[in-house]
Write a structure and sequence with these properties.
3 domains; alpha/beta; Ubiquitin-like (UB roll); Elongation Factor Tu (Ef-tu), domain 3; five-stranded mixed β-sheet; binds FE2/S2 (inorganic) cluster; 19 strands; 22% helix
């Protein structure tokens, strides 16, 4: 996959615990590749690969911007960005990748953000402003910890609603989910519990799955998953994949040579074709269309949606 060399041109802490980083092309190019709103940038964070949503202009951008919440109990990528990264440093990244794009057929976009989940939502709002799309934004955050509020206010005006109390947010969410015209698509990004609530209520209120879009932060939030068996098509060998063991680990353990890098579902290295059964996608790499096609999965985080799966390792 194409790699980018990026140089850090600015660092900022917009609210406590969040560091915003601006990158430019390390080779001096004035424009970086255009990306789809809601895309993430996979950054090599001192040997660990992490994905962060891009928050700036998506079309012919001179710079890329990300905002990173410091997670003291995380895997280390956010601490590296907060503590180690300096202006002038050069980092390696992959081309931006979209797993949370605005639906082209939507007539209205309802955007729901929680905490640092505001980052891909900001990208959507920026594009909506640019293209004259109809948006409504609900942003729940802790008091004094609302990153990017001023930019959102400037872009969305009174279509932005801010909530620092859970009860107020939940009550308003009910009203908003119940009142959306046909053709509205819902996008949600935030803490797992909040996302699960928003998506469950939308489903209960009759929103079809095709109009629900969500972006999860990464595998930190993934559960150990259900056990299943995997069959390797070429040999007919069947392996058990217990709960808490990834498909990648099971295949490596059995002696299969599977390329892998991040083991977080963000880099795209461990892609494996699926030839039987249905995958349960849990990665941030494949697009929605690729996930729906169900003929490939990222085996470091994704599993079987059922008791069995058959993969090709040719
Ligand atoms: S190893 Fe990076 S997506 Fe699986």
């Amino acid at each position: 996959m194409t790699a980018l060399e990026l140089v850090v041109t600015a660092l900022d802490d917009p609210v406590p615990g969040v560091r915003s980083v601006t990158f430019a092309a390390a080779d001096g190019s004035e424009v970086l590749p255009t990306y789809v709103p809601g895309s993430h940038l996979v950054v090599d964070c001192g040997g660990r690969t992490n994905a962060y949503s891009l928050t700036g202009d998506a079309v012919c951008p001179p710079t890329y911007s990300i905002s990173v919440l410091r997670l003291d109990d995380g895997a280390g990528g956010s601490r590296w960005i907060h503590d180690e990264l300096s202006v002038g440093d050069v980092v390696e990244a992959r081309l931006p990748r979209s797993a949370f794009a605005p639906a082209s057929k939507a007539t209205r976009h309802l955007l729901v953000a929680g905490g640092i989940g505001v980052t891909p939502i900001l990208s959507h709002v920026r594009a909506a402003d640019q293209w004259g799309r109809d948006v409504q934004v609900l942003y729940a955050h802790r008091e004094g910890r609302g990153a990017h509020v001023a930019e959102l206010r400037e872009l969305a005006g009174d279509r932005l609603e801010l909530y620092t109390d859970q009860a107020g947010f939940v009550a308003r969410l009910e009203e908003v989910l119940a009142a959306q015209p046909l053709g509205t698509h819902l996008y949600v990004c935030g803490p797992t519990a909040m996302m699960d609530h928003v998506l469950a209520r939308a489903a209960e209120l009759g929103w079809p799955p095709s109009r629900l879009h969500s972006e999860r932060f990464g595998i930190d939030v993934l559960d150990p998953g259900e056990p299943f068996t995997v069959t390797v098509a070429e040999s007919g060998t069947t392996l058990d994949v217990p709960s808490g063991t990834s498909l990648l680990e099971a295949l490596l353990e059995a002696g299969h040579d599977i390329p892998n890098l991040c083991r977080q579902g963000v880099c795209g290295e461990c892609r494996v074709p699926v030839v039987g059964g249905r995958p349960l996608h849990r990665d941030l790499f494949l697009t929605e269309d690729e996930k729906e096609a169900a003929d490939v999965l990222m085996c470091c985080v994704s599993r079987a949606d059922g008791p069995t799966l058959e993969v090709s390792l040719r």
